[in-house]
Design the sequence.
């Protein structure tokens, strides 16, 4: 194999992003995960609503210790006057990413 | 509806409290097999027609014997009357058909749009005319999600939530839900089609004390003191039911969900002073104002002195 061929092959490698959404029980990153979603930019796996009854990590911190990088954490919101007791979307959302290097772009 | 519903066919106070707390009631094998078979045949023959929204339920399904007979079952009449009264109106229905070998599920959502009602609710009767196995997906739903003010599919990002339920049931099972419950059709990985009939009903009367209230006084007994052991030991009491969090509740919202339960219960029992564990009585205590915070003398809703 010539040097030129090796260079072409290594430049064909691509990086793809995997996104893990975790929803924790409190604003603390070491609190229990109560909701989750996984979006796989490599195309290797497909996830959908209701496909797992057990969280992939017990806490967001456990995901970080497994190599996931935190991209965004939801802000703490002051209660809206007049709606102090209302509940809505899950309040503690942590978005994490993992970059995966592939030999070639997924089809 | 023809004759009066027998008191024994109405829901109990404890069932109503469960509905308020968790947003659903489930009744396994409530519908006889003959009716299940008849409905499946009607679906196959495309004989299940809907009605304009707002039609009195009593005027619906005259040409569809399986559903008419379903709604005439004493237990079904008792459930409907307990929750939305004796003369509800038809909102809409849908026959949910999930073909075999699906590759994904319907995203989690709440039906309709943001619903601002607090003292009234619709019910959605989900009827499973054939057995549903785990492989067939079944309806997925999130207990206790019904008070959350979200807009329909905005929650599609939430693929999984701790404590989510998947309907696996024998034929003839009914799941009766508060309109706000988060839910979605499960992924049918089996080789069989899955069917479910959903009927949404609206109340036409105030939803107060419509159930069998014979156990209301006993079930309403409160704890001897806040955080006392008996507050949690009597699991069939309304206040204990209201204090029980779902697995997924955020820590800071568990008590807010109890407040949501208390507020709906006040409407259902017609008692604006009902409370559980003193949560609302404490914060409604504004000397000089009435319970809702409206001024009785010279203070505003926060209890501050009004100027001028």
Sequence:
């Amino acid at each position: 194999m010539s040097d030129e061929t090796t260079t072409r092959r290594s430049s064909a490698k691509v990086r793809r992003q995997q996104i893990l959404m975790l929803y924790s029980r409190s604003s603390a990153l070491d609190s229990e995960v109560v909701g989750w979603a996984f979006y796989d930019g490599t195309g290797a796996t497909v996830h959908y609503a209701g496909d797992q009854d057990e969280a992939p990590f017990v806490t967001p911190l456990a995901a970080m210790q497994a190599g996931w990088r935190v991209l965004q954490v939801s802000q703490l919101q002051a209660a809206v006057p007049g709606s102090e007791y209302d509940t809505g979307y899950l309040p503690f959302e942590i978005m994490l990413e993992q970059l995966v290097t592939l030999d070639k772009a997924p089809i | 509806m023809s004759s009066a519903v027998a008191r024994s066919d109405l829901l109990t106070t404890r069932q109503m409290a469960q509905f308020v707390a968790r947003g659903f009631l489930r009744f396994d094998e409530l519908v006889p097999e003959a009716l299940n078979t008849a409905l499946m045949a009607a679906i196959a023959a495309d004989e299940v027609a809907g009605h304009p929204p707002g039609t009195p339920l009593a005027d619906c399904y005259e040409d569809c014997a399986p559903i008419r007979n379903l709604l005439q079952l004493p237990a079904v009449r008792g459930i409907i009357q307990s929750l939305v009264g004796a003369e509800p109106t038809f909102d809409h229905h849908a026959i949910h058909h999930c073909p075999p070998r699906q590759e994904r599920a319907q995203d989690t959502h709440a039906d309709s749009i943001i619903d601002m009602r607090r003292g009234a609710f619709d019910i959605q009767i989900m009827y499973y005319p054939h057995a549903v196995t785990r492989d067939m997906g079944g309806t997925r739903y999130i207990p206790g999600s019904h008070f959350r003010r979200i807009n329909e599919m905005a929650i599609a990002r939430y693929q999984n939530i701790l404590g989510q339920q998947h309907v696996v049931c024998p034929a003839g099972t009914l799941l009766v839900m508060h309109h706000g419950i988060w839910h979605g059709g499960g992924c049918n990985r089996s080789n069989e089609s899955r069917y479910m009939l959903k009927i949404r009903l609206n109340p036409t009367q105030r939803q107060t004390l419509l159930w069998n209230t014979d156990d209301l006084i006993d079930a309403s007994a409160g704890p001897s003191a806040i955080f006392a052991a008996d507050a949690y030991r009597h699991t069939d009491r309304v206040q204990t039911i209201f204090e029980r969090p779902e697995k997924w509740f955020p820590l800071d919202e568990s008590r807010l969900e109890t407040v949501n339960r208390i507020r709906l219960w006040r409407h259902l029992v017609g008692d604006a002073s009902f409370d559980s564990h003193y949560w609302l009585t404490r914060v409604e205590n504004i000397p000089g104002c009435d319970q809702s915070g409206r001024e009785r003398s010279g203070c505003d809703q926060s209890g501050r002195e009004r100027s001028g």
